[in-house]
Amino acid sequence: MSRLGNRMAATPRPEFHARLREQLTQPPPGEDLAERPQTGPRHSRRRPRTGLFTQLLSVVLVAAMVTSGIWTSRSMPGDTFYPLKRAAERTLFHLSTDEAERADRSFGYAETRAREVEELLGSGEREDMIGETLQAMEDTTRSAVTSLRQVRRRDAANARELKLFVQKQRTQISGMIPKMDAEDQIKAHVYLNYIDGLAPPD
Question: Does pTM top 0.90 for this prediction?
Answer without folding.
Answer: no
